[in-house]
Amino acid sequence: MSGSPNNLGAFRIKGAGRLTPARTARFTFDGKSYTAMEGDTVASALLAHGVHLVGRSFKYHRPRGILSAGPEEPNALLDVARDSARRQPNVRATVQEVFDGAKIASQNRWPSLAFDVGAVNNLLSPFFAAGFYYKTFMWPREAWSKLYEPIIRRAAGLGVAPKEEDPDHYANRFAHCDVLIAGAGVAGLTAALSAAATGAEVILVDEQPEVGGALHFDASTMIDGQNGYDWAQATAAKLAAMPNVRILTRTTVFGYYNHGFLGLAERVTDHLARPGRDLPRERLWQVRAKRVILATGAIERHMVFANNDRPGIMLASAARTFLNHHGVTVGRKVGVYTAHDSAYEAAFDLKRAGVTIAAIVDSRAKPGEAVVAEAKRLGIEVLTGHAVLDTSGRLRISSMKVARIGSTDSRKIAVDALIVSAGWTPSVHLFSQSRGKLRYDEAQQRFLPDIYAQDCVSVGACNGTDEIAALIDEAAAAGGGTVAIGGESRFAWTGGMIGAAEGAGPDTTVKAFVDFQHDVTAKDIRLAVREGMHSIEHIKRFTTNGMASDQGKLSNMHGLAIAAEMLDRPLPTVGLTTFRAPYTPVTYGTLVSHSRGDLFDPARQTPMHALQAAAGAAFEDVGNWKRAWYFPRRGEDMAVAVNRECRTVREVAGVFDASTLGKIEVVGPDAAKFLNLLYTNAWDTLKPGKSRYGIMTREDGFVYDDGVVGRLAEDRFHVTTTTGGAPRVLHHMEDYLQTEFPDLKVWLTSTTEQWAVIAVQGPKAREIIAPLVEGLDLSNEAFPHMSVAECTVMGVPARLFRMSFTGELGFEVNVPADYGAAVWTAIRERTEALGGCLYGTEAMHVLRAEKGYIIVGQDTDGTVTPDDAGLGWAVSKKKTDFVGIRGLKRPDLMRDGRKQLVGLLTNRPSDVLEEGAQIVADPNQPKPMTMLGHVTSAYWSENCGRSIAMALVAGGRARIGQTLYVPMQDRTIAVEVTDTVFFDKEGGRIHG
Amino acid sequence: MADVATRTTPLRGTHGGSASVRLTPAAPAERLSLRAASGDVAALSRALGLELPERPKTSASAGGRTALWLGPDEWLVIDEGEGGLMAACAASGALHSAVDVSHRNTAILVEGQGAAATINAGCPLDLSLKAFPVGACTRTIFGKVEIVVLRTGEEAFRVEVWRSFSEYAFGLLAEGATDAAL
Amino acid sequence: MLLIHCPYCEHDRSELEFRWAGEAHIARPETIAEISDEAFAEYFFLRDNDKGVTYERWRHIHGCGRFFNAARDTVSDRFLMTYKAGLPKQPVADVAATEQTIETYEQTEGDAR
């Protein structure tokens, strides 16, 4: 069967199709090698070699074949691989183009496709009826996650995701246009010509490799005097040459969102044997369109009858596509079962290509006269008012059982393929996604666009306009320009049905599949109704009809009709399930596009990052920032390094990168007035050249942020915020300034990144920086604690703060960021020469805890007032207004017994508490215990020679001196409640 | 007297692009975040020697200086010449806020046929010449970072970005440039 | 993704540049320090969350940086108008909650005409 490289398949029809035999591609399917033609889909290539069996069904593991020739395919889902990492499961064989070297495998079968152990499910099917998951696996409870679910997941399922990282890359592009046209069939191309003629910027999108839509199979329609498909290609070439038109093929409009926003997935390399290295595998287009023209066509429905899922049974239009486009016949002796005229044309094309048509079985008493006449002329037997009651054949259909409707006399007709059509369902998915409302067309049994929610119009088959001349007129008008195109179809089509066909009615127990991908039968839908589901939404979820990855493109209308019949209600009142994006599955890679690896999230680095990395720093993430955590020397682990850094800072001095702290410049004559309103402290009393620690509360009175604010001039403040709080604090300030206090003459500018900030802390801090600073007396008298000045450091303009987050003599040197590295290097050299060291955020945390300085967000949690945190002194008693003034007076914020920040000392000095651990008064009380609070900060303090901790404890300050308990998993730790200052309680060192 | 500090610019030594786009880190420049009410614009314009634009999305250039309208009372003023922006504003006598942001921002020049497509890899703006002509400017979003984009020519843009976001911005521009050349 | 008209930039821009900022036209009481607990709760904690036309604040945070007001129909997500901060509540034409308004997916499920 696989044969020589030149064997393009026994089912190729000479002279048929549009592919070029000279260009071939080799691929394997389940290990067997085949040759295809360039332009083949995996489906057409397999059919050319007579391969119909391509998969096992989801639940019953029934043999399945290829049902369609397009993106609506529910059955033929395959695993397509380029190599072990470039492997994608659940690829539709009818969409995937063959490329040379493709390794393709069937899914959901073991050990092999032809002999599948899971097929036993088919025999057990009475247990797998609708809703069986809900009913069968109820008990015992624990067994669900441990036993049932894993087994079900293995047995019922689709493909297996690759484990390796995806080596491909993906691109994203934002685009704008006047008109986006979804679908490049006759309607879409006509609309594009019309719109482009007006000068509008047009994006024309089609999911197939070439434009043409239904013209791929419809070989009898003539447009402008030429074969329709040829006209389509010529028209596309003409459009592509226009500067205002962009044509995107192999591109799916998968989502139509608010305000003219559409998501498109362009498949760039999946069809290429050797894609260029720069090519993204797929490209996401995020398009904002002023207008949208939907020309998405219609999808053919299958017939619902017993055993309608055997390989070899497929949609009539699919068979026609394989013949007219790919040059492949789906069988040698083909049966037709239809309720619509269109299937006749498939039979005519096959017959003319030399294929035997066993019979056309038409459930209608009166098909269209013209097609019946043509069938007669071609010598094809037409059985009107007949039905296919059943089919036979294990891995492929071998015969169909045909009877006159209402009669029990049946006959078996041998076939090797059966093509079916129940009519056409307009593709209203995108219209529905755009929030448009549908109406039910009773005569044609279909839903059509009715009320539009956006600037959008539907044209052609998706709008119920089937007749070619009317369709062209409608599309031309939608484009807004004028085009004259003549179109002619050979036959006008009539007919169509929805719901179960003869022999699959309510009185039967046959397996007549409605939803192939989820193995839902007509019987399942009826069972759902009998069990009390009356809304289509409930029926859908109970049966899973339409919930597979094909979203019920074939099954929804049939399911609805069967439910309506059971409920004995008009179909529109049963409802229609909602179409949701994406229209067809979109890979995660496409949605993620550039946001992976280094571009997943910005990694913010300070101007001294590289120097700290070179000094051996370990970094930690703080928001998007990378901050130096500690600087281990040879042989040091983290604890040893941090202990050394903490000791060195207090004994000599340390250098710390504080650049990530948020900085906001507040400028204007009302600057102090504004800060008075935004902080709890009073700022009008702060003199230029001085700084102050400020607390910001929200209107509800809880601590929002803190930081040191320096006044540089009467009308200029340098505000610092927490590292993580910088953007939200600025947003919060802007909110009040713009909307509550707009009359204040003050402006806010973020300067976080303008300044590199180098903190020098410790007894030798002054000695270290003094030689580098010009124009400033650094003595205690001239420049005491909490001073700020503009000066020159190493020849560049700088802002120098005398401040401390360690309790030591300290300075923070702010220099313009580009100079940070040079100044850092000079300060570091001087520091190390004097016996000091670099220190990181961990040592900073320990040092500040030794002094009881809080970290907002660690020692506070959004329910902590300044007083709770022991910072009541920072709340001005004199001000008549500030954000939070009223919130702080709420009864609950003023009551006794609130949680307050206190210190904890463990009875055993070596025990370091765990942050987050709960605190109780009596460890022997019955559970659940009354919890008094929790540990917020806990460290080993090398400088104190013991562990220290801070905690929020109910009525904490009144408990100082008491012993409380911290119950841990393996033991209970006794702690003494203390104040929060553990080191240098007198605070003399800071003025050193 | 100590050594004079040397300058270390972000994106130093970085270059990139594709067949249709060049990406170049811009030279250091003096930058001002300037804020003022409309009544004070004329005096500031005189002091700076260029007409501060008062229409959204527009910029003005003169004497090596460019002023970009960012908001109704906000401009980004870039001086690629001798500098002196702070002093000029201070001398205007007008009520304003001038904050030096020379080191906060850095800039990447995006030039070539695919420049707009490159930026559109992460920026939702319509960058067609019709919607965004030469001289147009705005603050906007680029992937996960904020940028200011100024069109300096039909096929040339200046992308201003905060320094710690510049590596990310350059990386995404580089991917966009590759894709724009396909 | 929404397309939002910024009244300061006088331009329609992608939602990506904006940040939603809660209900509009809730003025901070001038004598906030004096008001009752109930009045404070009304001002700070309680919101109407109406279905249909709502007035809300947005900030063009990655654009001109301005806060502004918008009247938006929460059912259709349509912006009826946007206007500058500080302007009084702007009247909008009555939006009939029935025919003209296209409801959300969830509300239309099972409701095709």
Structural overview:
Chain B: This is Sarcosine oxidase subunit gamma. Chain B: Pfam families: SoxG. With 992 residues, chain A is of the alpha+beta class. Among the domains of chain A are: 192 residues, FAD/NAD(P)-binding domain (3-Layer(bba) Sandwich), CATH 3.50.50.60; 125 residues, FAD/NAD(P)-binding domain, CATH 3.50.50; 56 residues, BFD-like [2Fe-2S]-binding domain (Arc Repressor Mutant, subunit A, Orthogonal Bundle), CATH 1.10.10; 192 residues, Probable tRNA modification gtpase trme, domain 1 (Gyrase A, domain 2, 2-Layer Sandwich), CATH 3.30.1360; 96 residues, Aminomethyltransferase beta-barrel domains (Elongation Factor Tu (Ef-tu), domain 3). In chain A, the strands form 13 sheets. In chain A, strands 8, 9, 12, 13, 14, 15 and 28 form a seven-stranded mixed sheet that branches. A seven-stranded mixed sheet of chain A has the order 41-42-43-44-40-34-45. Chain A has a six-stranded antiparallel sheet with strand order 47-48-49-46-51-50. In chain A, helix 7 packs parallel to helix 8. With 182 residues, chain B is an alpha+beta fold. Chain B has two domains: 94 residues, Probable tRNA modification gtpase trme, domain 1 (Gyrase A, domain 2, 2-Layer Sandwich); 72 residues, 2-Layer Sandwich (Alpha-Beta Plaits). Chain B is 19% helix and 34% strand. Chain B is built from four helices and eleven strands. The model of chain B has no long low-confidence stretch (mean pLDDT 97). With 113 residues, chain C is mainly beta. Chain C has a domain of 67 residues: Folate-binding fold (2-Layer Sandwich), CATH 3.30.2270.10. A four-stranded antiparallel sheet of chain C has the order 3-4-5-6, with no helix packed on it. In chain C, strands 1-2 form a two-stranded antiparallel sheet. The two termini of chain C are 27 Å apart. The C terminus of chain C is likely disordered. The chains are: A alpha+beta (992), B alpha+beta (182), C mainly beta (113). Chains in contact: A-B, A-C, B-C. Chains B and C meet through strand 9 of B and strand 2 of C.
